[in-house]
Structure formats: structure tokens, C-alpha cells
Amino acid sequence: MTPDESTHGMWSNRWLFVLAAAGSAVGLGNIWKFPYIAGENGGGVFVVAYLFCVALVGIPVMVAEVLIGRQGRQSPINSMRLLVQRSEGSQAWTLIGWAGVVAGFLILSFYSVIAGWGLYYIGELASGGFVGVDGNTATQALAELHSNPILMSVFHTVFMGITIFIVARGVVSGLERAIRWLMPLLFVLLIVLLGYGIASGGFAEGFDFMFALRWDALSFDGLLVALGHAAFTLSIGMGAIMAYGAYVPRSVSITRTVITIAMLDTVVALIAGLAIFSIVFANGLEPGSGPGLMFVTVPRAFGQMSLGALFGGIFFILVSFAAITSAISLTEPAIAFLVEEYNASRSRVAVSLGVACWLLGLASVFSFNVWSDVYVVGEKTVFDSIDYLTANIMLPLGAFFIALFAGYVLPRGTVMSQLGITSESAMAIWTVGLKVIAPLGVLAVFLYTIWPSG
Which of 132, 251, 402, 436 has a CA 20 to 30 Å removed from the CA of 357? Predict the structure, then answer.
């Protein structure tokens, strides 16, 4: 029999799992990527398309990950080992667990570097360093940070230290306690920033940018962008949700909980977009994409507004909170496995893993300066190569094979028991979604993202 509780601990209640999983899903991408791609791909039309993609692809795969984690009650690697054994499937399926653990480790190594920029900008904005700056000055400020390996290393170290301190304390004392504070504060800061954005006078323009129904702006490529973001905004394919699923009480409805998590993730992205673009348009600035929006356009916008230093600092505190909640989930698959495998103390494993990840992260730091001309694959630096490998290959393949494993290998009785399915019609919907729609959707995104590279 599968145990009712994980040896690592359990979430105290359903809402703590919701907040933890939402914290994993809500990251830097929600703050800048979703709002921008929505505005550029048809606004409200894109949002509707994205929600359909979440329902058809993102939610089914996330449900499958939580299901596998709760049934196995161990780290992703050992949960896959156990379920493969019980299902009498091929041992090759255990690679899903290994891929998730490795992907989480690799992602955290460079994610910590970018999150470190957010910590740095808290002080820069709050101290008035961006008051009255123009576009060139804001761009130069980011370039100067990138060119300083010592400064980048310091903030990379601080962020990694915060992350490891939290996860070393365990599920209840570490993860739960952090989530109890960070997620509510994140929502409060979002509302405060939205209020500030509305007061700035650019809310109507920002709302139009994100939600106006521009049918001609949504192309087939835009639909694939929506599908890709829906598939991976929920942190699927990297083992984090599977690891968190191992700590979910048996009484919790997986399907209802995952839908709640997906809704929270989307709401955060929409509110963040309205707040950011209200402020950007109030200052007559053009919305940029990626780091250019977060670290150039937004600081410049705050620098030209009254109380901009205060609310600019609040914005980057929000960014840092979102980054921390994602980072702690990235460590959990590897930490849980190493604790199980070597029967070692969690704190010792966390510190060892943190040091290893920090060292690899230094390679990403140096990619922006002293190793900027060192290429790993083609013309990609270490930073670019790890980003490409994880985002475009490991995560989509992980999500693809999770869907196939849950749809074709897990015993029907296990699925029905874990999801509380009692009718044949509900089981038929689940089967079609996970065996056909979700894997085909993920496969389409995978092929789309790797095709331009040859």
C-alpha cells in the first residue's frame, strides 16, 4: 500500500498547498512576459485563447503531476520508480523524475542570477537612483550591473542564501512558514501597485493594451505562444509540482485544487500587467519585452512619477517575493531525493545543493561580462544555453511524457481513486484530455520552439 503521508512532511491544509503551488507558478514570467505577449497578440482575444489552452493542456498535465506525486509520496525520482514498479511499466519512465530534478537544479542556477537583479533594484529604486532618468540612463544602469561580476555575484549569493535558508527548515517550518507570509504579502503588494497604476492616469490605455479584442493581431504563431505559456506557466514538467503533490493530504480534491491554482496564477499575471502598463503608458513610454520591460522601462517610469521611489521599491520587493516562492519549489525535487537516497539531514543536503547550484550560477553571472564571448552551443553563452535547454527541451518533453505516463501506464483504478472519479463519462473526458489533447498540444509547442534552431 502507498503511505498516506510523506516522510518529508505534509501540507497542513488545502490552501497551503494552493498557495505553495501558486507560488511556484507565479514567478518573474508572470510579472513581465504574460502581460506583454497578451498585448502584442490580440489583447483580450489572446487572453481567451490562453485560458482555453490552460484548460485543455496546462491543467490536465498539472493534475497528472500532482496525482503521481500524491500516489508515490516521495521525491519525483522515487515516486516514478515506485509507480513504474507497481504498473509493471518500463524502467525508462523513471527518467521523467530524473529530468525534473535536473531541470529544477539547472533553472535555479540562472534564475537566482536574474532574481538577484531584482534584489539590487529594490535599493536602487527606493534610494531615488532612478528619479528623473531617461531611457539611455536606465539602459546604461542595467548594462553597468551586467558588466560588474562582483556585484552580480553578491546578489546572486544573497538570493541563493535566502532560498536555501527557507528550504533547509523543512516542509512545515520552512516552506509553509515562508508561503504563509510571502504569498499574502505578494497579493497585497499587487493590489497596492494596481491602485497606484490607476491613480497614475494610464489605466485606460493599459487596460486597452491588454484586453481590447484585436482579432487581426492574433496569428497562428500567437496561438502557439498562448499554448506554450499555458503549458509551462504552471511549473509543469520540472518536478516541483510532483514533489509538492507528495505532501498533499488524501482528503484534498486534486482537480478542484489545480483549477484554483491555475486561476490564481492567471489573476496575478493580469493584475501585474494592468499595474505595470498603467504606469508605463502614464509616462508615454513604449512597453518593452523581457528584461527590457522589467529592468529598463519600468524603473524609468517610476523615476518620472511622484512617490516613484517608494512604489518602485515596492514593485521590486514584489518581484523578489515572486522569485523566492518559485525558487524554493525548484529546489524541492532534488532535496527530497537526496534526503531519501542518503538518509541525510535536510539542512545538510540543502546547503550542499545550494553551494553546487550557486557555483553553476556563477557561470551564468560571468556570461554577462568576463565570459561574454564564451559560447557553449552555437552563439549561445552558458546562460543562454542553460535557458534554452531547460525551457525549450527539458520542460516540454517532461510535460509530454508525464501526460503519456499518467494516460497510458498508470492503472485506471489508481487514476479514478486519486481523482475521485466515479462516472464513466468523467473518466472518458479525462482520458481524451490526457491521452490525446494535452500531449499533442505540448508536442506542438516543442516542435514550434525548436524548429527555428534547425
Answer: 402
